[in-house]
Amino acid sequence: MTSPVMVIGSGPIGAVVARRLAEDGCPVTILEAGPPISDPPGHHVRNQDRFHRDPDSYFEAIASRLRYFDEAAPARGLPGASVSAAVGGQGVLWTNNCPRPALFERGELVAAGEWDHYLDVAQRYLGVAADTFAGSVRQQRISHRLRPLLVAAGREIREQPMAGHLVDPATIHYVATGDILAGTGVRIEHAAVRRVIVDRGRVSAVELDDGTTLDASAVVVAAGALDTPILLHRSGIRPQAMGKRLTYHPVLYSQLVLDRQLCGGADDVPPRLWIPPTPAAPWNTMILRDTNPVPPSPPDIDIPSDRLVEMQSFCPVDNHPENTMTIGDDGTVRFDVPLREADQVRMAAALADQNTLAGALGRFRSGLEPQWMALGFAHVMGTCRMGRSDDGTCVTDEFGRVWNTDNLYLATVGVIPNSLAVNPTLAGAALAIRSADRLLAQQNSY
Ligand SMILES: Cc1cc2nc3c(=O)[nH]c(=O)nc-3n(C[C@H](O)[C@H](O)[C@H](O)COP(=O)(O)OP(=O)(O)OC[C@H]3O[C@@H](n4cnc5c(N)ncnc54)[C@H](O)[C@@H]3O)c2cc1C
């Protein structure tokens, strides 16, 4: 019997790869080191009633699920960089925003038509819709108020596509691995992979932490942007490009008290709006009712939830060749990603923008004026980049196959080669499904 393809990691990107392979009849098993942390396992933690009633309690409730590399590191050492080990990965914790990267963000590796095809497939697998919140009165009024201001600057505002749907006006169902794999028959085995066994460029098996080995016809490492290079390093696969030119999103966060005229009453559907990046304003902004990582200050402690919205702006950081993630032989990880002048100019412009937009909608809630989350918290990308040739700047070919291997693929936002402003999971999933198609074509040709 043919050995299965082993997908290492059960987050949303591992799940879309497994689904794609299973749909083609390819035997596939997901190996996941983390425990189940939701009920049912692999479903989104946020689908619990208590978080619908009290969204601001969500961030604190999941804080213990984030394992930081070094919270005491200086800013350039990315004190916010963290991973989550769980059935479903960070995809049982995420906010499910799935914008498509703008044309100017997509780089040159994948043709525009192919990008569109795979983004469509990824949207379908992740259950992404862009009209879920159309009935939100706040959404309509905020858009109406901001649109003239934005259009005058060549920008737009529209609903933020999201992986999920409304169960009723007050209840969002957040999509996670459990939804992506429903009906596929794919199993998630509890197993921590110590190393991938590669001999003369061919992967034959993986070795687990308990010393057992599992045969594999191919391996797809989908262990997240940080654990993927760590596992490669442990497996003796250490291309010089690994951990180089990485990028991430400094996140500017604030919470607003909306003008009363913008509100739609206590039963209003929460808004979820998106101001896409443009070449002139190349950061990604969302106005939504999400969750509040910082406590408010007096006199703004008791504000009715329907008057509150958060504003979040993600600023891309350039893929500078000297941005590094270094993995030591003892497994310790160190980041060095200083913000350069261009990055800082972009961040200052995003801050000015939030001030302008907030002024048009109401005022900041006391204690929740714009602030940068710990750097590295959001969306580390480019730790194991894709590229067209093995020129020392990339770890995989343009289909995610590790250079000089036959059957070892990477599926993670870590392969995204260029700096992106939008939340990256959808783009990472699209590239991963494309890699799965290449793996299937390769397997079918044997
Ligand atoms: C609070 C929060 C909100 C977010 N919101 C958004 C958002 O709105 N939009 C967006 O695009 N992104 C968002 N993200 C980021 C998003 O969650 C990640 O991009 C996404 O989960 C990455 O998916 P993945 O499958 O590559 O990896 P992960 O979800 O990180 O899963 C990787 C899995 O691999 C497992 N693993 C690692 N090493 C091994 C090993 N050796 N053996 C076995 N298993 C292993 C880990 O235990 C983990 O479960 C958010 C993240 C957080 C924390």
Please report the number of helical segments. 9
Average predicted local confidence, pLDDT = 96
- CATH architecture classification name: 3-Layer(bba) Sandwich
Unreliable runs, pLDDT <50, ≥5 residues?
Answer: none
Oligomer description: single chain
Total DSSP E strands = 24
**What count of domains describes the coordinates?**
1
Calculate the terminal CA-CA distance, rounded to whole Å: 15 Å
Q: Proportion of β residues?
A: 15-25%
User: What percent of the residues sit in helical stretches (DSSP H or I)?
Assistant: 10-25%
Task: Could you tell me the CATH topology label.
Answer: FAD/NAD(P)-binding domain
- Tell me, what is the CATH class? Alpha Beta
Helix and strand content put the structural class at: alpha+beta
Ligand species: flavin-adenine dinucleotide
Largest sheet: 7 strands, antiparallel
Structural description of this entry:
Belongs to the GMC oxidoreductase family. Its cofactor is FAD. Pfam families: GMC_oxred_C (PF05199), GMC_oxred_N (PF00732). InterPro entries: FAD/NAD-bd_sf, GMC_OxRdtase_N, GMC_OxRtase_C, P2Ox-like. This protein is an alpha+beta fold and 446 residues long. The chain has one domain: FAD/NAD(P)-binding domain (3-Layer(bba) Sandwich). The strands form seven sheets. Strands 6, 15, 16, 17, 18, 21 and 22 form a seven-stranded antiparallel beta sheet that branches. The chain has a five-stranded parallel beta sheet with strand order 9-2-1-13-24. The protein is globular, with a radius of gyration of 21 Å. The two termini are 15 Å apart.
